[in-house]
């Protein structure tokens, strides 16, 4: 049985998890249905196909060997049974209501950490599939590949073959250690300097901040989800008129929606500029460890206190340009890179404390999850909508994930159900903010 040592950030995700704060990603896909039995047929297909996807057979086990003491590794589960992971539920009229309750539940850690929940629609004209993947098993890109493995085959353009380096083993060849020592020392000094720089940037990012009470909460362990669909052509119209990138516009929409939502709650937005973490992938196409999380991030203050919608967009654009000039390896947003400087046992012992410290680092997560432009199907049924769902850090009440699929932008919203009982109002505010930006560009 072969095994693959978890990368430092994967190990961090594995160890900061708690019952009230599971660290799994989600995606809620809504499919059309030609008959009321389409959902049941989809569940059968998912279970049958899962056995043939190697990545779905991987469980995570503890490692107590030298040089990896206290770590964890992925390995093939010899007792893998797809029926433990694919579940067919009763028909429902509200996919998001069911998805919220399912997102509350941590994945079983003794099995491959993923699940697929099939939710037939009460009207018999649609069904949904909620995929859950632990962040230690896969990041957004890897999760997409795993999910694609159980959907209907898609004809993709062929790519030239490339040589792959062998996977990283659990132990370093002892014979190579003497020659590696000088380089390891230089690397350690460089890493220490980079870690200090990130730490200083993180400290500076907390100065002068007034957190919004709506975005922070005592953890209840409950979850609520919602989704918003936006026409990508509307986003491009704003971008062409006001400048910036598509991503700048999508982030500015979140800032404006927060302002509208807070004001409707009767809360003041004066001086409110919550810190938003914008994850950035550091994955390289030829990496020898493709399934490991390779993330950094940008940290920006969302201009919720600004009344002018185009002014908010300009503030977001300026902040993103500044972050891109500095690069994803510098600044407070790159704090995820500190995981690389912590030994495996440190992750195991300090994981719970790191999770609790997330509220000191950022107030809201705004992440983008890429999707293919090709139409996806399951059992011949077309995927019509897909909402990415991000994990919720301790002490934080709301996370936003964004995907573009076939000409439409999908905002997937996850909230603490007790702290944000009005998540549908925030979803409405997202749609309204797009219209506000369009109107402002026409003036």
UniProtKB/TrEMBL annotation:
Span of domain O-acyltransferase WSD1-like N-terminal: 6-249
SUPFAM superfamilies on file: CoA-dependent acyltransferases
EC number(s) reported in the record: 2.3.1.20
Biological or metabolic pathway of the protein: Glycerolipid metabolism; triacylglycerol biosynthesis; Lipid metabolism
Keyword Plastid: no
InterPro entries referenced in this protein's UniProt entry, alphabetically: Acyl_transf_WS/DGAT (IPR014292), O-acyltransferase_WSD1-like (IPR045034), O-acyltransferase_WSD1_C (IPR009721), O-acyltransferase_WSD1_N (IPR004255)
The keyword Acyltransferase is annotated on this UniProt entry: yes
Keywords of the record: Acyltransferase, Glycerol metabolism, Lipid biosynthesis, Lipid metabolism, Transferase
Catalytic activity: an acyl-CoA + a 1,2-diacyl-sn-glycerol = a triacyl-sn-glycerol + CoA
Any one Pfam family match given in the protein's UniProt record, by short name: WS_DGAT_C
Domain O-acyltransferase WSD1 C-terminal: 292-434
Top enzyme class: transferase
PANTHER family in the record: O-ACYLTRANSFERASE (WSD1-LIKE) FAMILY PROTEIN, WAX ESTER SYNTHASE_DIACYLGLYCEROL ACYLTRANSFERASE 4-RELATED
Family, similarity comment: Belongs to the long-chain O-acyltransferase family.
Protein name per the record: Diacylglycerol O-acyltransferase
């Amino acid at each position: 049985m072969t095994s693959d040592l978890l990368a430092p950030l994967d190990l961090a995700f594995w160890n900061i998890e708690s019952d009230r704060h599971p660290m799994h990603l989600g995606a809620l896909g809504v499919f059309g249905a030609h008959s009321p039995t389409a959902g049941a047929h989809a569940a059968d297909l998912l279970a049958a196909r899962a056995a043939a996807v190697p990545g779905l057979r991987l469980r995570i086990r503890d490692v107590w060997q030298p040089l990896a003491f206290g770590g964890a590794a992925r390995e093939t589960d010899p007792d893998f049974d797809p029926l433990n992971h694919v579940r067919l539920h009763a028909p429902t009229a509200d996919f998001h209501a069911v998805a919220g309750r399912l997102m509350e539940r941590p994945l079983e850690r003794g099995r491959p950490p993923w699940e697929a929940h099939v939710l037939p629609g009460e009207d018999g004209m649609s069904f949904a599939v909620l995929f859950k993947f632990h962040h230690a098993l896969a990041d957004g890109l890897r999760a997409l590949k795993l999910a694609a493995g159980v959907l209907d085959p898609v004809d993709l353009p062929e790519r030239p073959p490339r040589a792959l380096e062998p996977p990283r083993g659990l132990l370093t060849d002892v014979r190579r250690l003497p020659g590696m020592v000088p380089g390891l020392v230089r690397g350690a000094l460089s890493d220490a300097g980079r870690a200090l720089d990130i730490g200083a940037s993180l400290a500076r990012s907390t100065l002068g901040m007034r957190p919004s009470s709506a975005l922070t909460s005592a953890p209840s362990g409950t979850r609520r989800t919602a989704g918003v669909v936006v026409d990508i052509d509307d986003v491009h119209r704003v971008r062409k008129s006001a400048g910036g990138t598509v991503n700048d516009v999508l982030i500015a929409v979140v800032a404006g929606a927060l302002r509208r939502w807070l004001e409707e709650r009767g809360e003041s937005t004066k001086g409110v500029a919550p810190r938003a973490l914008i994850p950035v992938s550091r994955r390289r196409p030829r990496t020898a460890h493709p399934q490991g999380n390779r993330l950094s991030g940008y940290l920006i203050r969302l201009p919720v206190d600004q009344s002018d919608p185009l002014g908010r967009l300009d503030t977001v654009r300026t902040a993103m340009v500044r972050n891109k000039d500095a690069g994803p390896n510098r600044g407070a947003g790159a704090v995820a890179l500190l995981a690389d400087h912590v030994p495996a046992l440190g992750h195991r012992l300090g994981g719970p404390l790191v999770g609790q410290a997330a509220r000191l680092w950022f107030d809201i997560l705004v992440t983008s999850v890429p999707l293919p432009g090709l139409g996806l199907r399951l059992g011949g049924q077309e995927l019509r909508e897909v909402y990415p769902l991000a994990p919720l850090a301790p002490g934080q009440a709301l996370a936003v994930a964004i995907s573009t699929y076939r000409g439409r932008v999908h905002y997937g919203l996850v909230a603490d159900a007790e702290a944000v009982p009005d998540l549908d109002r925030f979803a409405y505010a997202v749609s309204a903010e797009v219209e506000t930006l369009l109107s402002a560009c026409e003036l």
